[in-house]
Design goal:
By secondary structure, the chain is α/β, with parallel strands linked by helices. Helix content is 18%, strand content 24%.
């Protein structure tokens, strides 16, 4: 028997989104009048409803494509989200526990190596690596936007060079919080501190899953499959994704 674990946050109006989500509801009464009819013309005295949702491609749980990181991957045009190979989006899940890394800090290669050693797993091509920071506990609060650990550029390259094509995190973003990166840049003038995990994707093609949730509900570090197929928004750098782990019950 199979058990499904939802690893996604809802798409909703919340302080945890940097860009507000707007949801306009057309209810069952108005659904009739826009068609020039009355609700009484429909079975049960009700028409059908509809919603108009205004959001970004980075709202809710979503996947970033190489085009988000830059126009090129190496010397080739970067793939948009509708060009992402679906084969990359289904594979064995590997959960790495970094809940002890303080918010604002980076997850380094050494940390990755130590965690892989702890769980007894060597990363291989096809693995979908899930970074468990615990930041999803802040969902619903504005603190979610700035209180999490992020992956370093070197850590990103380390995973990509092991053949990993999908890296996910249960936080607002893959890199450290924006205020931390900007503060470091203003202090040092070092451009490499700005979005290093994203920029690494310009030379090492991979996909990001951001705003994951419920990684603690997984049965362990490994032993399940993850499905994370994105909505193919033509020409876009990201797309919404319902991420699900498929586990043995």
């Amino acid at each position: 028997m199979t058990r499904l674990v939802d690893l996604s946050v809802p798409t909703e109006q919340t302080d945890s989104e940097a860009t507000p989500v707007k949801i306009d509801l057309l209810d069952h009464v108005a659904g009739a009048t826009v068609l020039g009819l009355s609700p009484e013309d429909f079975p049960g005295g009700m028409a059908i409803s509809n919603e108009t949702v205004t959001l970004t491609t980075h709202t809710g749980t979503h996947m970033d494509a190489p085009l988000h990181y830059g126009p090129l991957t190496g010397d080739a045009p970067a793939r948009s989200i509708d060009q992402v190979p679906l084969e990359w989006c289904y594979g064995p899940g590997v959960r790495l526990d970094f809940r002890d890394v303080p918010p604002g800090q980076g997850i380094t290669v050494t940390m990755l190596e130590e965690e892989f050693s702890r769980i007894g797993h060597v990363p291989v091509a096809g693995d979908i690596v899930l970074l468990w920071t615990g930041a999803d506990a802040l969902w619903g609060s504005s603190d979610y936007l700035t209180t999490f650990a992020g992956l370093t550029g070197e850590g990103t390259v380390f995973l990509a060079e092991h053949g990993v094509k999908v890296i996910g995190i249960d936080a607002w973003g893959m890199d450290r919080p924006i205020p931390h990166m900007i503060e470091d840049y203003r202090r040092t003038g070092d451009r490499s501190v700005l979005w290093p995990a994203h920029v690494a994707g310009r030379t090492h093609p991979y996909l990001q899953l951001e705003k994951l949730a419920h990684l603690g509900d997984l049965p362990g570090p490994t032993g399940y499959m993850v499905a994370c197929f994105p909505v193919p928004v033509t020409g876009a750098g990201a797309g919404w994704t319902r991420v699900v782990a498929i586990c043995d019950a």
